[in-house]
Amino acid sequence: MDIHQLMAALSEHSSTVIALVVLLCFSAYFSASETAFTSANKARLKTAAREGDHASGRALKLLGNYDRLLYTTLIGNNIVNILSASLATTLFVALFPKSGVWLSSAVMTVLVLIFGEITPKSLAKQQPEALAAKVAPSMKFLTYLLMPLNVIFTLWRKLVFKVFKIEDQAVTTEDELITIVDEAEAEGGIGALEGDLIRSAIEFNDLDVNDILTPRVEMAAIEDCLTVAEAAQEFYACNYSRLPVYRDSVDNIIGILHEKDLVAAMIRGEESIIPLIQPVIYASQTMKISALLRQLQKNKSHMAIVLDEFGGTEGLVTLEDIIEELVGEIWDEHDEVETPVRQIAEDTFVADGSADIAELFDVMKIDERLLEEADTVTVSGWVMEQFGHIPQAGETVTVDRMEISVLKAGPKLVEEAQFRLVAEAEEEDY
């Protein structure tokens, strides 16, 4: 068959050719719609809808029943693709009786892939919210038109889920949220500072009071029998604006004394600090810091005393400690800036005994397995755990390709230690 005969034959089947073109257009429509609604950002659609974009509002309502929307696009796409394949087979068999079937399969596969799948989906991926808003009215009409089939497939889905005992997992996990933030930061959608803040907010509810408390041995506190002048000396020495007040023992914290109340009492000439003591909030070690934050806000307080399992004082937590878990360290003009973990060489680090062991491992990029095996949260506690006793300054031990040297030590704890990563060959020499 030459070209003139082919053109003549196609003109005789012009209605079939036009129908194939229309079906390919519908295939592109359904493919693009599916990709647009799948990739659309609900937050952007909500923002546009609040600003008065009714089309975005309609798209958002369709996304509210995503299963029905998905069934509509899949049913529509399969119907038009099957129809186009059938018509194409009829056309090619009429034109090429001997090879029409395989020619139809080859040509329609290429056409559907290029014009019905790849091209429309690639274009829809670029601006999914805009396309979802444009096709929302027609897609809404089609969901009603195909409602009987949607109902059948919905019942079938429920049956399959029941038979195979599959549960819906529509809730986004924290890890997924953090991955989304990482991707947005990598693509330039948000800055590093915003990314850190969002990650801190996501992980905020996972932290217990025990993770951020100031331990009892580092607490500054005053006894209730002190005079106003003596208490003022204590405030001057520690440079804090609030101090816990205890009676007989630090295990019996009875309240909090504010520096401004003390100054006012000095001006009035008062002697005793008892009338100045404010009520104290108590918290357990396992209490979530998010719950403690709400309690501090409710009671208009800035400090809570953390109790151990026996009712004694474990430490304290301030409102500033909790906020720092969200925004990072907060320094004022009177604070002495401290760096608990310092890198002094390419493979050598120095850490204070009170530093968080997780922070040290993060800076050193140490295997998290060691952290999971640790029973302590401070550098001092972890180092003593590795030695098996309270080490003295100058003692050294090697743990998992890491040489630990005690630089400063007290009678009860390690005050400063050095950590050096050693190569395998160097480790064998020990």
Structural notes for this entry:
The structure is a single chain. With 430 residues, this protein is α+β, with helices and mostly antiparallel strands. It is 56% helix and 15% strand. The chain has helices at residues 3-12, 14-39, 42-50, 54-64, 66-95, 100-126, 128-145, 147-163, 174-186, 192-203, 228-238, 259-268, 289-298, 319-327, 357-364, 368-373, 379-387, 424-428, and strands at 214-215, 222-223, 242-247, 249-258, 281-284, 303-307, 313-318, 341-345, 348-352, 396-398, 402-409, 414-421. The termini are far apart. The model has no long low-confidence stretch (mean pLDDT 85).
Number of helices: 18
- Indicate the mean pLDDT: 85
Q: Give the total of beta strands.
A: 12
Biggest sheet architecture? 5 strands, antiparallel
- Strand content is 5-15%
The span between the termini is 87 Å
What are the low-pLDDT stretches, counting only 5+ consecutive residues below 50?
none
What would you call the structural class? alpha+beta
**General form:** elongated
Biggest sheet strand order reads: 8-9-12-11-10
| Helical content class | 55-70%
Radius of gyration: 35 Å
SSE succession: HHHHHHHHHHEEHEEHEHEEHEEHHHEEEH
